[in-house]
Write a structure and sequence with these properties.
Blueprint lengths: L1 H31 L10 E2 L10 E5 L6 E5 L9 E5 L8 E6 L4 E6 L6 E5 L8 E5 L8 E5 L5 E5 L6 E5 L8 E5 L8 E5 L2
Antiparallel strand pairs: 1-9, 2-13, 3-4, 5-6, 6-9, 7-8, 9-10, 11-12
C-alpha cells in the first residue's frame, strides 16, 4: 500500500512539474515577443485606406528611409525594389478594395491602374512584379493590421503562410514572398502621402 501511495505521489509530482514547465515556457515565449508586433488581435484594415489616395510602403526593418518602388529600367519597368525614399511616382501606391472580401489591389501612380503588384507563377511563386491588372489571386492582397501601426501583406493565392518580405542579403532591397514569421522585413508601415 505504501509503495502504491509513493508511486501515485511521484506521478502527481512529475505531472505538476511538467505543467509548471509548460506554463513557464509559454509565458517566456509571450514575454520575449511582447515588444514586437504579432498577429494577435489582428483585424483586416477594411476601411482604413482611401481608394483615391496614395500611400508609401516602408518596413520596420529598413525604416522610413527606404520605400517600396518600381525600378525604372527603361525596358519593362516592372521590377519592385526597396529604394531610397523620395518624391517618386513609383513610390506612391494606390490601395483599392477588390470586392467585399477584404482584399486590395496595389497600383502605382507611375504605372497607373493597368499594372498591379503580382506574384510570378513560375513554380517558386515568390517573385513579385508589376503585371497587367487582371482577376488573378496573386494580385489580391490581404492587409492585416498588427500592433504599433504596422501591417502584414499576404496574397489570396499564397495565403497567410507567405508574406511580403525583403531579402536579407547585404543589399536588403529585393522584395519577395517568404514564409510568414516574426521578421521586421515583413512588418510594413503604410503612410498616406497624398
Amino acid at each position: 500500500m505504501n509503495r502504491r501511495i509513493f508511486q501515485v505521489s511521484f506521478l502527481l509530482a512529475i505531472t505538476m512539474l511538467a505543467l509548471f514547465g509548460l506554463a513557464f515556457l509559454l509565458k517566456s515565449d509571450v514575454t520575449a515577443r511582447a515588444n514586437f508586433p504579432t498577429n494577435s488581435n489582428r483585424e483586416i484594415a477594411a476601411t482604413r485606406f482611401e481608394p483615391n489616395s496614395y500611400y508609401r510602403l516602408t518596413t520596420q526593418w529598413q525604416g522610413d528611409g527606404k520605400s517600396l518602388d518600381i525600378v525604372n529600367d527603361g525596358k519593362l519597368n516592372n521590377q519592385l525594389r526597396l529604394t531610397d525614399t523620395g518624391n517618386f511616382s513609383g513610390q506612391r501606391w494606390r490601395i483599392t478594395p477588390i470586392g467585399g472580401d477584404g482584399y486590395y489591389r496595389f497600383t502605382s501612380e507611375w504605372r497607373g491602374n493597368s499594372k498591379s503588384i503580382d506574384v510570378v507563377n513560375d513554380g517558386k511563386n515568390n517573385q513579385l512584379i508589376m503585371a497587367d491588372t487582371g482577376n488573378y489571386a496573386g494580385q489580391f492582397w490581404k492587409i492585416t493590421s498588427l500592433r504599433g501601426g504596422y501591417y502584414r501583406l499576404t496574397t489570396h493565392w499564397q495565403g497567410d503562410g507567405k508574406s511580403l518580405d525583403i531579402v536579407n542579403d547585404g543589399k536588403n532591397n529585393q522584395v519577395i514572398l517568404a514564409d510568414t514569421g516574426n521578421f521586421s522585413g515583413q512588418i510594413w508601415k503604410i503612410t498616406k502621402i497624398k
